[in-house]
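Chapter summary example.
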Amino acid sequence: MNFFEWLTTKRKTLATMNVAELRAQEMLLQNERNRMQARVGQLAKDKQKIIAQGAKEKTPELRRTFAQQYDLLHTEQMMIARHLNIRSKEVLTVSRLRMLRESGQMFGGAAGVRPLIRESDLAAIERLIENDRISSEMYQERLDEILRMGAEADESTAGISPAAQELLKIWNDMDAGLIKDTGTAFDEAERRVREREKAVEG
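The structure predicted for these 202 residues follows.
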């Protein structure tokens, strides 16, 4: 189960966690990241030992055995390094959202209680996290941009009707690829408006 699957199976999603919950998740991810870093370092040392042993050994059969051991260690190191890149980006995500939540509570703004991030942004973040070609440094820039744009979008929707807000969300979902065509977008917009009207009437 990956990071986002774990979050969505809980009572609260990443976007609605409070400061304490975000901090707890941040610490769990940091501990796992630290274990991965230690393992990658140990594997590097083990590979160096094998190279030294193979250099001293002149028997072809034993050298072949050392080479196979080296290959296994290298494969494990690459697999862990990939997961380490993902985990580092997850830690950064939770840390950023925790700071946003703390800032919202400190200044008494809406960010202290409302969801921190939109579903469309969460989908975009998930794709960035799982993309091996995006390093932690690149991800940090993209994450900050997404969170900044999300905050600006929240400010721009202030004062408009709930139905219009739903339509803006649907367009964001289309941008993220969650809704494929305008026909589906129209049906979804109508459905959400009807649900809002029923909630008000009820």
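To summarize the output: Residues 43 and 76 are 8 Å apart (CA to CA).
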